[in-house]
Amino acid sequence: ETGVTQSPTHLIKTRGQQVTLRCSSQSGHNTVSWYQQALGQGPQFIFQYYREEENGRGNFPPRFSGLQFPNYSSELNVNALELDDSALYLCASSAQTGNYGYTFGSGTRLTVV
Amino acid sequence: DAKTTQPTSMDCAEGRAANLPCNHSTISGNEYVYWYRQIHSQGPQYIIHGLKNNETNEMASLIITEDRKSSTLILPHATLRDTAVYYCIVRVVGASGGSYIPTFGRGTSLIVHP
Fold first, then answer.
1. Of B4, B21, B112, B113, whose CB neighbour count within 10 A is largest?
2. What is the pLDDT of residues B39-55, one digit of tens each?
């Protein structure tokens, strides 16, 4: 059983650019969530996808968008990057009908300069 | 806002039990208590969850008070590798369709010392 994998592991972008982060969910999981974690803070929920539809969103602006594909993998896209977008971006997958919690990936460290 | 409150930091001697408290006084009847931990620069790792009964697995024990307003995560024999930030969250799990999104607070930074 594979876990959640994220790519890339590290990324440096310039303010104003756009970035796409990728996530492969754990086998058997059909729900993917994305979190932003600033240094010293807990993970902040961005949004969740279930069966390719967004079914929950946190307090993030529309320039944060996402996709989920038929194989349940997912992308997080951020447009018009700002310096404050520098953070660890975590992807987590879960089986919607189960209650065994979320499996997190190791994250993508994004630095905006 | 997080629905749980935890102490900012704790420390524990290696080999001793680490007891991490969590207050969730506004928990609803259909919300589970979940615990995760995050070791530096890694993604959070699931530890254990429970609804109202005490639970135990190979990693830890979870004690939930009878009124469900607080819980304690117990690491029975802490090791240096248990040094991490521990998060207590509450989450509704639906039988189908959507599930409530867990909200993380700042967690408890546990330092296990020799």
1. B4
2. 987 899 999 999 998 99
Flag whether residue B44 sits within 8 Å of chain A, measured between CB atoms: yes
Q: Is the Cβ–Cβ distance between B57 and B72 less than 8 Å?
A: no
> Which positions in chain A touch B36 (Cβ < 8 Å)?
101-102, 104
A108 confidence band (pLDDT: 50, 70, 90): very high
Q: Which of B85, B98, B106 is nearest residue A56 as measured by Cβ atoms? A: B98
Q: Write out pLDDT tens, residues A17-60.
A: 999 999 999 888 888 999 999 998 999 999 989 889 988 888 99
DSSP A38-70: -TTS--EEEEEEETTEEEEE-S--TTEEEEE-T
Answer whether A33 sits within 8 Å of B101, measured CB to CB: yes
> Tokens in use for A62?
């529309």
Tokens standing for B113? Answer: 């010392």
- Taking an 8 Å cut-off on Cβ atoms, the answer to whether B43 and A107 are in contact is yes
Q: How far apart are CA B14 and CA B51, in angstroms?
A: 30
Q: With contacts defined as CB-CB under 8 Å, which chain B residues touch A96?
A: 94, 96-99
When CB atoms are compared, the residue of A33, A40, A102 closest to B46 is: A102
